[in-house]
Amino acid sequence: MIDTQDMKTKCGFVALIGAPNAGKSTLVNKIVGTKVSIVTHKVQTTRSLIRGIALKGDDQVIFVDTPGIFAPKRRLDRAMVNTAWGGAKDADLVAVLVDARKGVTEQVERILEGVNDIKMPKVLILNKIDLVKRDSLLALAAKVNEIAGFDQTFMVSALNGDHTDDILDYFSDQMPKGPWLYPEDMISDLPMRQLAAEITREKVFLRLHEELPYASTVETEKWEQKPDGSVRIEQVIYVERDSQKMIVLGKNGRSIKAISMAAREELSELVEAKVHLFLFVKVRERWVDDPERYREMGLEFPI
Fold this sequence. Notes:
Elements: E1 10-18, H1 24-32, E2 50-56, E3 59-65, H2 75-89, E4 93-99, H3 106-115, E5 122-127, H4 134-147, E6 152-155, H5 164-174, H6 192-208, E7 217-225, E8 231-239, H7 242-249, H8 254-271, E9 275-283, H9 291-297
Parallel strand pairs: 1-3, 1-4, 4-5, 5-6, 8-9
Antiparallel strand pairs: 2-3, 7-8
Helix pairs in contact: 6-8
């Protein structure tokens, strides 16, 4: 057993939970200083636990971006919600993000009631404060704390970065003494192949948004380092029906070309090398009932 008494370093996990589109991924990316979690306007974009690693002096804070919590209707929904609550219970501290514009919706109220059952330090983060008047923010903070008592309340704009430094300062102080779990230059524990798939999935959602049904996913099937330093990446976009495949391809292949171009540009920045990206669209009926697809996404298959 490691004696942490005289250690200067601290390290721990902060689980970010909240309703879909509360701004969890945006906040993690802002605090870490680079993209580790994809962001789109589509709800339930984050499907598995994404860990973003931030440093503050001698402290390492590992932020766990969880899927949005909502009333699940499908098997994939149940898997994501189970993962979110599981991530919260395994952390050293739980931070609940609430969209200050929307306030305490029925969805948020259910989350706050669930948070009451978690016996660990809890922090409230009101996000998107740049869009709400101060008086309303104070009233909202009081209302939320009535439902679930929090040790601390922060008001931030994850998008603009307003007051996000205060959050990191507080969390680093709260972390337990112990050795760092990740190297100094590591920003996420997500394997590069999976991060690449997430980036392409983000571009699919951003390009097609409402046109494409929720049940689509991306998998990286090949990652090859070429002799000239460039990288060849082959990915498959899985959909459930032929009609969805046509949406992804677009008229004369316009949509898939635009998706590929946007993903390739970001992937090149990520790997700091030229990327040759090849996207394929395949129909896999009822892939949401296939345990293998869940393992690929880092989710447990709900029975």
